[in-house]
Amino acid sequence: MLGDALLVIQTANTALASIKELIGNGKDITDCAQHLGQYFDAKSEIQKKAGNSQSTGSDLQNFLELEKLKQQEAELKDILIYQGRPNLYTDFLR
Question: Do 36 and 19 meet the contact criterion of CB atoms below 8 Å apart?
């Protein structure tokens, strides 16, 4: 099961890298919808695993994975704020 967790983390990392690359190449944030979905699906799965007492990872590993996701989400927030339209981030949260 640890391999599953690593695959989910890799999916989140790949999705974030794709978003950054698309934005860096002049694409609009709307062009990143698929990758945003992949990122947040992976994040949700990691959160479920971290909250599951039957999870195969250690508490420390789960904590560190969630911390990394928080840092990545801060990057996504900046992208939405600075690369999107006005109030895009606020609308996204709703």
Answer: yes
